[in-house]
Amino acid sequence: MAFFCQKDSYATELLTEVISCSPAQLKAENGGKKETLSGFNIILKDTVLFPEGGGQPDDRGFIGEVQVLRVTRQGPEAVHFVLTALEPGSEVLVRIDWSRRFDHMQQHSGSWDDSAVLFELDTPTMTNQQVEAVELLVNQKIRQRVPVVVRVITTDDDEFNQVRSRGLPDDHAGPVRIIDMEGIDANMCCGTHVANLSDLQVIKILGTEKGKKNKTNLVFLTGERVLKYTARSYSVEKCLTALLKNGPEEHIEAVEKLQKSVKTLQKNNLTLLRDLAVLTAQSFKNSPDSGKLFSLHRKEGDNEFMNIIANEIGTESAITLLHFTPQQQSSSSHSGLLCQWVISGDVMLMDSGISDDNLHDIAIYYIIVKGSLPSVLSVCLSVCHGYSLVAASVCHGNPSR
């Protein structure tokens, strides 16, 4: 069965009849989260909404005032998923999201136009010169206003075995559609296509990718997507020009210089942090008033910084309490989990946690002593304006406590 949308790809609405309405569910994504929607599958006498197939996405639109969220093909029928039930036998006006449909028509017909040219080249790899030649030839065909003719044949027709095809679906029934780009290619397809290559407007090949069976996949845009891509690219180029204080042709060189400078600064910063860690630990050890507890908080620290301090102080007597804030966490917001370690001789951290925007919560640190002594040290901190230590206690017994 050929749907109305396949007979006239430019039709935007159709008055038809509801054949059936049955409860159904649809697995969908909303804001990146998967969810299951409960609704109804609607089968119409005919439809202007294209069901997914032939490498082309399905349409969106409305049946009356009810939004269609998905259109799929089941055998000879197009099934429309909606959230509101519709009365079988009722007459309804089906309207299409034309912007989405026309974009799909352009991309789908454009891919056929490209593949037809590539089929003639018959090459598993392409040089930049070949890509440019293909792009030039395809755009020439667009300017020549090559007609795209849709013909319907049966599987008994002699032409059926002569045209290119990826094969028919197992549940296919009825006639077969042939998409004929005059003088370029003829192929079987169930999708919606432009009536003339001039409707593609322009094709821009962005690059190539290695395909299957020694084929080359083209990465391309056509139609309105080229205009949107050009607008975005110009906007980015304009911003980079203002930030880098040079012209577009110098952007790459300027960014490469910045990357080298950043690597040099990071290396120097790491060296300074290491030296600072050693000096900090030595200062504590040499101080006559150092006591039994060493506590330090630094935003710029990392695991290596803390390990150096811990190793330099040693395991003789002092409990070493170190904090550092990850660099990706802003100074204005301390909510979430901070990476904090507690080290005391052979003591290692099991778990830690802190969460409060105003830095007033209490963080509990669980640490265990390595060796034969099954001890647990529970250190409670009141985190406010300076990470000051409130209390420390040792609990002997089961580490799970």
From TrEMBL:
Keywords noted in UniProt: Metal-binding, Zinc
A Pfam family of this chain: tRNA_SAD
All copies of domain Threonyl/alanyl tRNA synthetase SAD, residue ranges: 176-219
InterPro entries: Alanyl-tRNA_Editing_Enzymes, Thr/Ala-tRNA-synth_IIc_edit, Transl_B-barrel_sf, tRNA_SAD
Cofactor: Zn(2+)
Entry keyword annotation includes Ubl conjugation: no
Domain of life: Eukaryota
Family: Belongs to the class-II aminoacyl-tRNA synthetase family. Alax-L subfamily.
Protein name per the record: Threonyl/alanyl tRNA synthetase SAD domain-containing protein
Organism annotation: Ranitomeya imitator
